[in-house]
């Protein structure tokens, strides 16, 4: 079985469930830009359009988690764990912001064995 690139904490799963009840289907996008930094953003499905060659690294509770193509090149050797914190992050466009929450990603480098058996990445065409 291939090694996942993305996991989700229980606390983030709870928040995703609440957001789905309020907004319906979701999507996640993690940019490498200036305004939101590298904070993952949560949108209603179709509320953001990934760019050419952005990377779909996995699914957070069944919803796609896209990473900016340039940021992915930097972090392609790392596992992402989606978490949530109380408070406001640097971005204000994400659906959890009005709830006083912010999604956050914890990173760890894959081991050599894990790198040899990673799930494939889907690129936006």
UniProtKB/TrEMBL annotation:
Question: InterPro entries recorded for this chain?
Answer: DUF779
Q: Which Pfam families match?
A: DUF779
Q: Which domain of life is it from?
A: Bacteria
- Tell me the protein's name: UDP-glucose 4-epimerase
